[in-house]
């Protein structure tokens, strides 16, 4: 192990010749090289390829391919685009899918009834309801109606509870995608100062939870939100080693606010008309051109977090299928047992229980040197 007290040149001289060293110039001036891109497109393709291989192997031994049901209410253009990307990714990974299109006028009770039917449909492994929903429908009611076992978006209150407690479960796809993007890009989060701008229940809050969680991000995490005074927000952002923004306000983060070498993850997406291009373009929360001159890593918008969100949805769907199919296979095996076999198994269990009870009594006798007695759990 290298001693931190040794000069840098001596440390470099001790590195074995067969170890590649990546040299990257660093200048604490505006002329330094631009940040490396956190390439969500490339990494998401790698993950989808890995999932495809796993799903093909799963299917090759006779198991049904995972199935994702997407519920789309209304005709929001952005939602139509997002759903299209999700279905395309599902197909590339070998997952079957369907889109259930519903009119914007559908009542909340009818939508919830549909979700209940999908919950009990044995052919459906994952359920996704595309947001936003019409104003007359409660998003929280919809999230909590989806079965936690099929909640591949990770929005059910039970899923959120598992996230906060660090328990196994389905976590929201965007925070999962951010953590995977950082991990696969070689960004170390351990012990770093992380700042999350935005506290939405689906992105900001769960991202902050994962960033600070023991054994996950292990960062010291600060959340800034709409009521954080601008002066304080600038101070927090200026201390960040890792900055994650999920506000939806173009130009929120500028170069003068960040420190040299910061890692920037821009989740914000706003559709604006660009007069120079005479077309609508997507803008993030970060001034990309300015901040990329100081950052070490930065996500592009689009092409950064978005593709990672989609591939985490596919990963969650496959996980749901493995869990559900496991339960279903055990149920099917149990149903196939004849009455005679069931009676034999019951007798064996009773005999084992009586043997264990007798064994416990002998242990009590040996330990306390008294007449054996038996304790029955009630």
Structure description:
With 378 residues, the protein is α/β, with parallel strands linked by helices. Helix content is 45%, strand content 13%. The protein is built from 12 helices and 11 strands. The chain has helices at residues 8-14, 40-60, 77-93, 108-120, 139-145, 157-165, 173-184, 204-212, 230-239, 288-291, 305-335, 339-368, and strands at residues 36-37, 67-73, 96-102, 126-129, 193-197, 220-224, 242-245, 263-266, 270-274, 279-283, 297-298. α2 runs parallel beside α11 (305-335), α3 crosses α11 (305-335) and α7 packs across α11. 34% of the residues are buried. The model is unreliable at 1-31 and 358-378 (pLDDT under 50).
Strand order of the largest sheet: 1-11-8-7-5-6
| Percent of residues in helices | 40-55%
| Structural class label | alpha/beta
Tell me about the largest β-sheet.
6 strands, parallel
Beta-strand percentage range: 5-15%
Distance between the termini: 58 Å
Treating each run of at least 4 consecutive H or I residues as one helix, how many helices?
A: 12
Order of helices and strands: HEHEHEHEHHHEHEHEEEEHEHH
Q: What is the typical, i.e. mean, pLDDT?
A: 84
Chart the SSEs and their pairings.
Blueprint: H1 8-14, E1 36-37, H2 40-60, E2 67-73, H3 77-93, E3 96-102, H4 108-120, E4 126-129, H5 139-145, H6 157-165, H7 173-184, E5 193-197, H8 204-212, E6 220-224, H9 230-239, E7 242-245, E8 263-266, E9 270-274, E10 279-283, H10 288-291, E11 297-298, H11 305-335, H12 339-368
Helix pairs in contact: 2-11, 3-11, 7-8, 7-11
